[in-house]
Specification:
Radius of gyration: 21 Å
Structural class: mainly alpha
Number of strands: 0
Strand content: under 5%
Distance between the termini: 28 Å
Amino acid sequence: MNNFQLVFRNTKFLILSEFFIKIIGFFYFIFLARNLPIDVFGRYNLVASFVAIFSFLPDIGIGLVVVREIAKKNYNLPLLLGNAFFFTGVMSVVTIAVIIVVGFFAGFSSQVLLLLFISSVTLLFSQTRSIPLFYFDGVERMGYSAILKALNSLLFVAFGLSGFILGFGLVGIITGFLIGSIISFVVTWMVFFAKKIKICLKFDKKIIKHFVCDGVPLGIAAFSSLVYGTIDGIMLERMLSEKALGIYSSATKFGPTLLQLLNVPFVVAIYPVLSRLSGDTIRFKRAIFKSLGAVLIWSVPASIGVALFADIIPIIFGERYSQGAGILRILIFFVPFAALSAILYKILIVVRKQNLYLAISIIGVVINILLNLFFISQYQIMGAAISAVATQIVLSVIYGAVLYFFVFKKS
């Protein structure tokens, strides 16, 4: 099987999985939007955005390192996976403490702090179940990852919905997520061990050092990406209100859904292939151009299509969210630039230029916060959408320039 066939097969599995995940997630999101008061719906998105910012900590970049090293076969596999589990487990516990402490000093209410605690424990189980997924991605058997991810999403929605139906409100929904993540954790590891794959929990100083040196810059960069990807919602809640965040959230679901449905599976599938081809300059460059072309082919028409049908928001979410249509017409155009950036920064990781990825991500955070401060104060909710698009345009240009000068021009 050649590289194209392998990428196509893995992309197909992952797209089917993401399609299933996004469909049930989207309908669940609509259900909450229509059945919760706007301010409570805004609180739900506030908790999700806040936890998302710190979701980099349990992994702190080692996931990409592990997949890369498995693809290149550079380390003893059981030892690599065992130390990844140990590292992720410890960092997950640290993450719980960080989320609660930062939430407390941010001045969140006691209910929000409780929701943050439950969500952070959920994050622990979600991250430690990722180790088997790293393995399946690294050996390019992504059908297993696709099925397990779809099952995880189904369990989340099923138990979250159960918590709501039983009348426990947001606490019931978030607790349902926790229960679903625990069951998903157990099932994922059962599948992993059923394949007779070994894992060694022996501490290896060399591997941990490798995780820290190569992974931490990626983790910090991921944190930066999460900040400029979610800080707009938190700033809206702080500068305006939970209601403003609720309205904005009705428009934010479409762009990430497109990215995760069409772009993420492709990027996940192409990453180990690019890692293998990185030693062959001609084939590596050819693969890069093909990848960028594929991204543009789907992202530009999809964004235009969503913008044309933005008036569907009040039909889906209810007339309370009619303001979201105008927001979506602007916000959706961050998609092509975000999709390109996702390929470009993965290439920097492949060629071990993760420090450049880190620097660009930090620049993105600064740009996004400054733009949000200005545009939200000037244009209210619409300002957050303008800031999101402008940030992604700047970042894609910077990534492209860096890739040209530090990779193409030097080779």
